[in-house]
């Protein structure tokens, strides 16, 4: 009688374990687990290509959805992490955008608009003749003068060793990102992203002091002489 009870108990335990395993397997089929980097389904054929450049431009907002993240990781895994090759010019793809022509930008820039945009800089710079230095040097007559040449101002070592003059090209590059243009500069200004804004500020700075060099000539002949003489 005792052996029978042990046998029945063993059968019950085995049956319960088999039932639990079956239930777990069935539940897994109904509610698949979320494995980052894997799709929840097996696509037929190749995984649709992903525009990696568009993903980079929209990062991170365009991957807020978990499914999109999984699709991207699965695509990279399937393609061994290689990006699609660029299409040859003439096959329907747009040609790379050319950098703006500074001469054209300055010819159409408005000094009054530049003065308004430069007001954001008055907490660090003075723009008047004989005005004081502040956190940054006085900018009267800055266009065309030597870099780090404001007498009495304590420049960073990076600025002192840079050399050259504040030409239109140098100012245009510096205003885009001071830290990238002159690594080590003490200027904490992040920079102006829009080329038109930088051109307007430079056009305004060129009116201060009266010693600025002539504006660079536009490369395109589409700019009218009236715009150049503005």
Helix-strand blueprint:
Blueprint: H1 2-30, H2 52-58, H3 66-78, H4 102-108, H5 111-118, H6 157-162, H7 168-176, H8 178-181, H9 195-205, H10 225-228
Helix pairs in contact: 5-9, 7-9
CATH arch. level architecture of the largest domain: Orthogonal Bundle
Largest β-sheet summary = none
Mean pLDDT: 76
Distance between the termini: 112 Å
The helix count comes to: 10
Question: How many domains is the backbone divided into?
Answer: 2
Could you tell me the strand content as a percent range? under 5%
Which CATH class of the largest domain applies here? Mainly Alpha
Q: How would you classify the helix and strand content by structural class?
A: mainly alpha
Let me know the CATH homologous superfamily of the largest domain.
Answer: Cytochrome c-like domain
